[in-house]
C-alpha cells in the first residue's frame, strides 16, 4: 500500500463537513476521485463497469469471503437487500462509510455536534480513519438460491450445479456451498472485514452467515507486473495464472460469453463469471519433513526460482518432452503442474485468486493452515471440474493437503448506471 491517502473521516473533516452538516452537504458528492489521491490510482478500484471488480483486478493482499443462506421466503425482502447492499458496497469501495455520517450517528469526530447519540450507528466505524484500500466487493449466487423460494428456478444457468464431492475430499459440510457469496479483497484486512461485517449486519433477518474465511498474503497473481508470491509450501504460486493482459484467454476462459449453458436463460450471466472455491488444509508439519527433491517433484518446479524442472527461468515453457538421465520425465506425471497444465487439459485454463490462511494451531499443536483457493472460470464443467478430478486422482500434492470445502457461485456481470446486484438475476 502506498501512503498519504485521504481517509473517509479526514476527507470530511478537511472540508469542515463532519456531523450532520456532512450528511446534508456531502450527500451529492462522490469521493471516488478524491480517495485515489496518491497519484498512482492504486487505492480506489472502480465499482461499476462491464464486469465485476475483484476478478482480474490486481490481487490485493487480504481476503474476507462470506457465504450466506437466505432465511426469508420473501422475494421482495431479498430484492431490497441486494439493492441496499449495492449502495453500501459502492460507497465502501470509494472509502466512504456505508451511509453519510453513519458511524457516529451524525456527530462530529470528537463525539460532539448535532448528531443523535441515541441512534444505533449505521456504520460499524472500524474503517473510519482508513483509506479505500483498493477494496473490491464481488457478489455471486449459489445453485441453492434457484429453488422455489424466490421464483428463480427458471433462471438457473445449466452450468450452475453444485460441485461434486471429489475422491479423497474430507468435506466439512458447514463450510460448503451457500445461497449468496460476497468476496471482499483489500490491501488492508480491516477494510475487507469492515465490508463483510457491514453487509452482514444490513442483511440481518434476510440472510444468515453459513461460512466465512479470512485470507492473507495473495497466493497467486492476476497481472504481469506483480511479483509471484509464495504459498505456505514455500513455492512461487501464480506463475502461469491467466493475467489481465492475456485478453484472448480471459475472454475464452473467464468471462461468460454467449454459450447458453453459462449465460443462462435470457443470457443474464453474459459478462459474468463462475467462482469455484475450495478450502484446502495444508499439512505443513508433514511437508516440512520432506527432502527438497520430493518437494520439487510435487510441483515439477524448482523451489528457488520457480522455473519448471529442467528449464532455467520461471517463465520458461514447461518441458514435457524432456527426460533427465534415467530418472524418467523431468515433469513427473503425478506432479501438480503436469496435471493442471492446459496442454494436458484441452487448453482449458482458470483464473486463480488464492489466499493463504493460518488460524493458530489445532489440538495436536499443528498449524491450522492452508490455502483458500478461488478459481474464476467461464464454464465450471470444462474449466474446473475435470482438472480438479484429475488432481483428486493423481496429484502427488494430495499427500500434503486435505480438501475441506467446495462451493460454486454465478457472479453476475458488472453494473451499469442505475443497476444493482439484483438487476441481472431478477431480470
Ligand atoms: C493447497 C493447494 C494448492 C497449492 C499449494 C498449489 C500450488 C501451485 C503451484 C506452486 C503451482 C505452480 C506455479 C504456478 O503456475 O502457479 C500451481 C499451478 C497450478 N495450479 Fe495449483 N495449487 C493448489 C491447488 C490447486 C487447485 C485446487 C487447482 C484447481 C482445481 C489448481 C490449479 C492449478 C493450475 C491450473 C496451475 C497452473 C498449471 C500450469 O499452467 O502450469 N491448484 N499450483
From the alpha carbons, calculate the radius of gyration and give it in angstroms. 23 Å
**Most strands sheet:** 10 strands, antiparallel
Classify the helix fraction into a percent range. Answer: 10-25%
> Which percent range describes the beta-strand content?
15-25%
Structure classification:
alpha+beta
Can you tell me the residue ranges where pLDDT is under 50 for at least 5 consecutive residues? 1-6, 9-41
The overall pLDDT average reads 90
Tally of DSSP β-strands: 10
Tally of contiguous helical segments: 12
Give the total of domains.
Answer: 2
Structure description:
It is a single chain. The chain has 2 domains: 8-36 and 96-129, no CATH class; 60-85 and 132-426, no CATH class. Helix content is 23%, strand content 17%. The chain has helices at 8-14, 19-25, 32-35, 75-93, 189-202, 247-253, 260-263, 284-287, 292-299, 336-340, 380-394, 423-426, and strands spanning 62-70, 136-141, 180-186, 207-218, 273-282, 351-352, 355-361, 367-377, 401-403, 407-411. Strands 1, 2, 3, 4, 5, 6, 7, 8, 9 and 10 form a 10-stranded antiparallel sheet that branches. A hairpin with a 5-residue loop joins β7 (355-361) and β8 (367-377). The longest helix has 19 residues, at 75-93.
Amino acid at each position: 500500500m502506498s501512503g498519504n491517502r485521504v481517509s473517509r473521516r479526514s476527507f470530511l473533516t478537511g472540508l469542515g463537513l463532519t456531523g450532520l452538516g456532512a450528511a446534508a452537504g456531502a450527500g451529492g458528492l462522490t469521493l471516488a476521485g478524491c480517495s485515489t489521491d496518491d497519484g498512482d490510482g492504486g487505492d480506489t478500484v472502480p465499482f461499476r463497469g462491464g464486469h465485476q471488480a475483484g476478478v482480474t483486478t490486481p490481487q490485493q493482499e487480504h481476503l474476507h469471503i462470506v457465504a450466506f443462506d437466505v432465511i426469508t421466503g420473501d422475494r421482495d425482502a431479498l430484492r431490497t437487500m441486494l439493492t441496499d447492499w449495492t449502495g453500501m458496497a459502492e460507497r465502501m469501495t470509494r472509502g466512504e462509510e456505508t451511509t453519510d455520517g453513519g458511524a457516529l450517528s451524525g456527530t462530529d469526530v470528537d463525539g460532539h455536534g448535532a448528531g443523535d447519540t441515541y441512534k444505533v450507528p449505521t456504520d460499524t466505524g472500524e474503517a473510519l480513519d482508513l483509506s479505500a484500500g483498493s477494496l473490491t466487493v464481488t457478489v455471486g449466487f449459489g445453485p441453492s438460491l434457484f429453488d422455489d423460494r424466490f421464483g428463480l428456478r427458471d433462471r438457473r444457468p445449466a452450468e450452475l450445479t453444485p460441485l461434486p464431492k471429489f475422491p479423497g475430499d474430507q468435506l466439512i459440510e458447514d463450510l460448503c456451498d451457500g445461497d449468496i457469496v460476497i468476496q471482499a479483497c483489500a490491501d488492508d484486512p480491516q477494510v475487507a472485514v469492515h465490508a463483510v461485517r457491514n453487509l452482514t449486519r444490513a442483511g440481518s433477518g434476510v440472510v444468515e452467515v453459513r461460512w466465512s474465511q479470512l485470507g492473507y498474503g495473495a497466493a497467486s497473481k492476476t497481472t504481469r507486473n506483480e511479483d509471484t508470491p509464495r504459498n505456505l509450501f514455500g513455492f512461487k504460486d501464480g506463475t502461469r495464472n491467466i493475467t489481465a493482459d492475456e485478453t484472448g484467454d480471459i475472454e475464452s476462459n473467464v468471462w461468460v460469453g454467449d454459450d447458453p449453458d453459462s449465460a443462462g436463460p435470457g443470457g443474464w450471466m453474459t459478462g459474468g463469471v463462475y467462482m469455484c472455491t475450495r478450502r484446502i488444509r495444508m499439512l505443513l508439519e508433514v511437508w516440512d519433513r520432506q527432502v527438497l527433491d520430493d518437494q520439487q517433484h510435487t510441483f515439477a518446479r524448482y523451489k528457488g526460482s520457480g522455473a519448471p524442472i529442467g528449464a532455467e527461468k520461471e517463465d520458461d515453457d514447461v518441458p514435457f518432452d524432456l527426460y533427465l538421465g534415467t530418472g524418467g520425465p523431468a515433469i513427473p506425471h503425478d506432479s501438480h503442474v503436469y496435471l493442471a497444465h492446459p496442454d494436458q487439459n484441452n487448453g482449458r485454463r482458470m483464473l486463480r485468486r488464492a489466499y493463504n490462511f493460518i488460524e493458530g494451531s489445532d489440538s495436536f499443536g499443528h498449524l491450522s493452515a492452508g490455502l483458500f483457493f478461488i478459481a474464476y472460470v467461464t464454464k465450471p464443467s470444462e474449466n474446473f471440474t475435470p482438472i480438479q478430478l484429475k488432481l483428486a486422482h493423481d496429484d502427488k500434492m494430495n499427500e500434503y493437503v486435505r480438501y475441506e470445502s467446495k462451493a460454486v457461485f454465478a457472479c453476475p456481470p458488472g453494473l451499469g448506471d442505475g443497476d444493482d446486484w439484483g438487476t441481472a438475476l431478477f431480470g
